[in-house]
Design brief:
single chain, mainly alpha, globular
Length: 454
C-alpha cells in the first residue's frame, strides 16, 4: 500500500514548486548567502605581497595545503579574509562531542532538550573563537617567516600585522559560522555543509580543466583519462546507492478492543541507514589532520632541514602514514557519531511506549540489544564504505596505480565527491519535505473550506 505522503511525493511537479512561496524565499536566501561567502574568498588580507605569496603557496599546495585549500573554498590560495574557512567550527564541534561523552555536566545539558542544546552550541562557538585565534596566529607567524625570490610574503611584519591577521581571520570564521546558522534556520538544509559544498563545487570546473590539461601535456595517458572519468561516474553511482540503502526492521503493533471495534494490528518499519553518520566522519577526520598542519608548509619552506619538512612529507596526501591515520579516524568517527545520533535504548523505549514491538524480541532491553546489534553491523559496513571511497583517490595520488596521479587536483577526490553527492541528496530531500508540507497545508485549507460550506 502506498502512503499518503508517497502519493503526494509522486504528484510533485513544477506547478507545486511555483506555488510554494516560502520555499522559494528559502532557496533565494540560501543562494544569496552562498554568494556572499564566495565573494569573501576573493577579498585578500591586508599587508600581503601577492606575488611572493603565490610562489610560497605553489610549493605549499603540493602537499597537505591542497586539502586545506579545498575545505576553505580556494580562500587559502588568495589568502582571503575567509582563509580559515569553517574548519575551526568543525574542530570545536568534534571537541564538544567528545567532551559530551565524558563530561557529566555536558551529558546533563544534552538531556535537557532544546535549552541544553543551545548551551552546548554556545560552548562550541566559544571553542571556535579560541581555535580560530590559535590558527590565525600560526598563519601570521608562518607568513612573516616566509620569503622567496619575489621577496618577503609580508610587506611590513610586526605586531600590527599579527593583530590585523588574527582579527581578520577570526572575524571571517565567526561570520561564516553565523552565516551557516542563518542558512540552517532561514534557508534550505544544513548551512555548514552547504558552505563546504559551495566551495568544492566552485573549484571543480578549474580542477576539470587542469585535469584535461594534464592529458594534453602527456602527464596522463588517454586510457588513464578515460578510466578516471568512468571511475568518478562509478563512484558517484556507488555513493548514491549506499546512501539510499536501508535495513528495515519490522515493527508490529498489537490489536486492541475499543468498544465494539477491533483496532490496531498494523505493521510498520524502523529504517536504519547503512551509513547513519553521513559525511561527518570524513570531514571530522580531515579536520583533525589539517588542524596541526595549517601552516607547516610555510615553516617547512622557510627551513628545509627542520622537523616540519619531515612532518609535511609524512602526513602529505597519498603517503602511507596519512592514509593509515585517515582511515583510522574515519572508522572511529563512524562509530562515535552513530552512537551520538542514534540511541537504541531510547528507540526501544519509544516503541514500548506506543505498544510496538519487533517480532521475536521482548519489548524493552532485549529489543534495544537487538537494535544495537543490527546497528553495529551496519556501521561496520558504512565505515568500510566511507574508508574505501576516501582512500581510493589517495592511492591514485600516491602513484600506486599509475604515474602522474599526484598531479590530479584535490577537487577530484573521494572526500570532495562524497560531500557534493550527499549534500545534494540532503538538500533535495529538504526541498521535497518543504513541498510536501506545502501540499498538506493546501489539503487542510481545502478541507476547512468544504467544512465551512456545509
Amino acid at each position: 500500500m502506498v502512503s499518503a505522503a508517497e502519493q503526494l511525493a509522486q504528484n510533485l511537479n513544477f506547478s507545486a514548486f511555483s506555488k510554494a512561496t516560502e520555499l522559494k524565499q528559502r532557496i533565494w536566501f540560501t543562494l544569496g548567502a552562498l554568494i556572499v561567502y564566495r565573494v569573501g574568498t576573493f577579498i585578500p588580507m591586508p599587508g600581503i605581497n601577492a606575488e611572493a605569496y603565490a610562489i610560497a603557496f605553489n610549493s605549499f599546495n603540493q602537499g597537505i595545503g591542497g586539502m586545506i585549500n579545498l575545505f576553505s573554498g580556494g580562500a587559502i590560495a588568495n589568502m582571503a579574509i575567509f582563509a580559515l574557512g569553517i574548519m575551526p567550527y568543525i574542530s570545536a564541534s568534534i571537541i564538544m562531542q567528545l567532551m559530551t561523552a565524558v563530561s557529566p555536566h555536558l551529558e546533563e545539558l544534552k538531556k535537557e532538550g532544546e535549552q541544553g542544546r543551545k548551551q552546548i552550541n554556545q560552548y562550541t562557538r566559544y571553542g571556535t573563537v579560541v581555535l580560530a585565534i590559535a590558527q590565525a596566529l600560526g598563519i601570521a607567524v608562518g607568513l612573516e617567516g616566509s620569503e622567496n625570490a619575489a621577496g618577503p610574503v609580508v610587506s611590513d611584519p610586526g605586531l600590527f600585522f599579527k593583530f590585523t591577521t588574527i582579527s581578520t581571520l577570526t572575524a571571517g570564521t565567526i561570520f561564516l559560522m553565523w552565516l551557516g546558522e542563518q542558512i540552517t534556520a532561514r534557508g534550505v538544509g544544513n548551512g555548514i555543509s552547504l558552505i563546504i559544498f559551495s566551495g568544492i563545487v566552485a573549484g571543480m570546473p578549474g580542477a576539470l580543466v587542469q585535469t584535461l590539461s594534464l592529458g594534453e601535456q602527456g602527464t596522463l595517458s588517454a586510457i588513464t583519462m578515460i578510466l578516471l572519468v568512468f571511475g568518478v561516474v562509478a563512484m558517484i553511482a556507488f555513493i548514491v546507492y549506499i546512501e539510499r540503502s536501508q535495513r528495515r526492521l519490522l515493527v508490529q503493533y498489537p490489536k486492541r478492543q475499543q468498544g465494539n471495534k477491533m483496532t490496531g494490528g498494523d505493521q510498520s518499519h524502523l529504517p536504519l541507514k547503512l551509513n547513519s553518520s553521513g559525511v561527518i566522519p570524513p570531514i571530522f577526520a580531515s579536520s583533525l589532520l589539517l588542524l596541526p598542519a595549517t601552516v607547516v608548509g610555510f615553516w617547512g619552506a622557510q627551513d628545509a632541514s627542520s622537523w616540519v619538512t619531515t612532518l609535511t612529507a609524512t602526513l602529505g596526501p597519498g603517503q602511507p602514514l596519512y592514509m593509515a591515520v585517515y582511515a583510522g579516524l574515519i572508522i572511529f568517527f563512524c562509530f562515535f557519531y552513530t552512537a551520538i545520533v542514534f540511541n537504541p535504548a531510547d528507540t526501544a523505549d519509544n516503541l514500548k511506549k506506543y505498544g510496538g514491538f519487533i517480532p521475536g524480541y521482548r519489548p524493552g532491553e532485549r529489543t534495544a540489544q537487538y537494535i544495537d546489534y543490527v546497528l553495529t553491523r551496519l556501521t561496520v559496513i558504512g565505515a568500510a564504505y566511507l574508508t574505501v571511497v576516501c582512500l581510493i583517490p589517495e592511492l591514485i595520488r600516491g602513484d600506486y596505480f599509475f604515474e602522474g596521479g599526484s598531479s590530479i587536483p584535490f577537487y577530484i577526490g573521494g572526500t570532495s565527491i562524497l560531500i557534493v553527492v550527499t549534500v545534494t541528496m540532503d538538500t533535495v530531500a529538504q526541498i521535497q519535505s518543504h513541498l510536501l508540507a506545502h501540499q498538506y497545508e493546501g489539503l487542510i485549507k481545502k478541507s476547512k473550506l468544504r467544512g465551512s460550506r456545509k
